[in-house]
Amino acid sequence: MAVLIAWLRDSPLPRLLYRLYGGYLRLRRPRTLGVRTLVLDRDGAILLIRHSYRPGWFLPGGGVAKWETLEAAARRETREEGGVEIDGAVELFGMYANFTAHCCDHVALYVARRWRPVVSHSVEVVETRFAAPHDLPTDTTPATRRRIEEFLGRADRAAHW
């Protein structure tokens, strides 16, 4: 498994597949619904993930499956991508529109404060880490930084992701 993950990290194939899949989704499902979860540890550090198919650090999350609630999707994606099982309640922080040239997406952002580590075998995530809000990795995505600033009360909540 470690060899496969190392190969995926260095290969252009995951990025190519991600772009092809994105094109397919835009044709098949022109509107999408997604979730992200801001997971906090006891010290206030935030869980970040790095994908194999696109650059930067993100909050764990992904698409909502058919017949799945937003909360269930947030719990599933956090477990799959972040390697943590959310215990107890999650708080819906906000809903955001994500409109780009080829995307009509809405994203629900949840906050989780109670969790426990679990084993995750996701090949789409190459690294996870908790980072203090004042010490985020330099390549943390702008949208991720904005959501963290909003959560901390340092920025007004935006309507767009």
Task: Describe the structure in brief.
This protein has 161 residues and is α+β, with helices and mostly antiparallel strands. It contains 4 helices and 9 strands; from the N terminus they run H-H-E-E-E-E-H-E-E-E-E-E-H.
What is the succession of H and E elements? Answer: HHEEEEHEEEEEH
User: Share of helix among residues?
Assistant: 25-40%
The quaternary structure here is single chain
* Global geometry: globular
- Extended strand count: 9
The biggest beta sheet, please? 4 strands, mixed
What proportion of the residues form beta strands (DSSP E)? 25-35%
Number of helices: 4
Structural class call reads alpha+beta
N→C terminal distance: 34 Å
Unreliable spans: none
Question: Strands of the largest sheet, in order across it?
Answer: 4-1-7-6
CA radius of gyration is 15 Å
Mean pLDDT score: 89
Could you describe the 3D structure shown?
With 161 residues, this protein is α+β, with helices and mostly antiparallel strands. It has four helices and nine strands. It has helices spanning 2-10, 13-28, 70-82, 142-151, and strands at residues 32-39, 46-51, 57-58, 61-63, 84-86, 91-100, 103-112, 115-117, 125-131. The strands form three sheets. Strands 4-1-7-6 form a four-stranded mixed beta sheet. Strands 3-2-9 form a three-stranded antiparallel beta sheet. The chain is globular.
